[in-house]
Structures are given as structure tokens and as C-alpha cells.
Design a protein that fits this description.
This protein is mostly helical. The chain contains 5 helices and 3 strands; from the N terminus they run H-H-E-H-E-E-H-H. The chain has helices spanning 2-24, 28-37, 79-89, 134-144, 149-166; strands at 49-51, 93-96, 114-117. A 3-stranded antiparallel β-sheet has the order 1-3-2, with helices on one face. 18% of the residues are buried.
Length: 177
């Protein structure tokens, strides 16, 4: 029995050695690394920075994906709002509607979307000097989204509808005996 067990382990050892030699040599593993080291131009769409709405959402914790301070974050921003704000300031923006933040458990349409923004030019300098980092872009977007017309109109219309609806309900309770 001892001899049979030894034969199996030595077979495993040979397989492990073969995998190590094959993977660590100039074959598949080396070729992948060489391809990954070629630097893509910052103007390529794959090199644009990604901003998910969860990064700016004040309803999220840091563990759930918020990346800016809670006092500067916005309530439930959408990818369209982020796109509007960034395009208005002059960024090259790409909206990917069907992408989702991996930590987002809610599959609702409201939480979908990702915005890609060109932060740097081909030479590595920022496209807009006032936004040198991705954090500066996120802070600007969070600061500007509440000022959007769609946000201010929603707040105003809600107040009016509440005022009209308050006096309408009378005598809907139980009758007193």
C-alpha cells in the first residue's frame, strides 16, 4: 500500500513541476505580461476613468462604494446627471447605460450606468487643468448635480403638490357615537 501511495504523490509532483515550468517560462504567462506592459494612449476609450453613481451617493457607506465625504455626496445621483455635469464643463464623456457597479445589489434601472471620462491627453497632461485627479472630478460632479434644473424642478413641484393635497381629505375616519 505504501508503494501505491508513493506513486500517486510522485505523479502529482511531476504534474506540478510541469505546470510550474510551462507557466513560468516564455510561453503563455510571459506573453500575457508583455502584452499588458504596452502602454495604451490616455485618449483611448479604455483608458477613460470610470465614475459610477455609487461613488457620489450619500445613501451609501464607504464599504458600499462611496468615494467622497458624505457631507459632499448627493442623494441618489444617476449616470445621466453625472454625464450632463461633466459634458457641460468640457470633458470628453461616454455614457455606458447597461453597466453596473459590482457592489450594487439592486438591479433597478435607476442604479445602472457608468460614465467614462477622458481625464488625460495623449501627453499625460490633464484635459482640464482644474481637474487633475479623478477625485477632483467626483467632487465637482457632486457639488454641481444638486444645481441641475431637473433636481431643482423636482423639489419645487413636490412642495406644491403637498400643499394642495393637505386640505382635501375630510371625514374619512370612523364615525363617533
Amino acid at each position: 500500500m505504501r508503494r501505491g501511495g508513493g506513486g500517486i504523490s510522485s505523479g502529482r509532483e511531476r504534474a506540478v513541476r510541469a505546470v510550474r515550468v510551462g507557466g513560468g517560462g516564455e510561453g503563455g504567462g510571459g506573453g500575457v505580461m508583455a502584452g499588458a506592459t504596452t502602454a495604451a494612449s490616455p485618449a483611448d476609450k479604455e483608458r477613460f476613468i470610470c465614475i459610477y453613481p455609487a461613488y457620489l451617493n450619500n445613501k451609501k457607506t464607504i464599504a458600499e462604494g462611496r468615494r467622497i465625504p458624505i457631507d459632499k455626496a448627493v442623494e441618489n445621483p444617476t449616470s445621466t446627471e453625472i454625464q450632463d455635469v461633466c459634458a457641460a464643463v468640457g470633458f470628453n464623456v461616454l455614457l455606458e447605460k447597461n453597466k453596473m457597479y459590482p457592489r450594487e445589489w439592486n438591479r433597478d434601472v435607476q442604479y445602472r450606468g457608468r460614465v467614462r471620462i477622458q481625464l488625460k491627453q495623449d501627453d499625460g497632461n490633464p484635459c482640464l487643468p482644474q481637474f487633475p485627479t479623478r477625485k477632483s472630478v467626483m467632487l465637482y460632479a457632486a457639488e454641481t448635480i444638486p444645481k441641475l434644473k431637473t433636481r431643482t424642478q423636482k423639489i419645487g413641484s413636490n412642495d406644491q403638490s403637498l400643499q394642495q393635497g393637505e386640505g382635501g381629505k375630510k371625514g374619512k375616519g370612523k364615525k363617533k357615537k
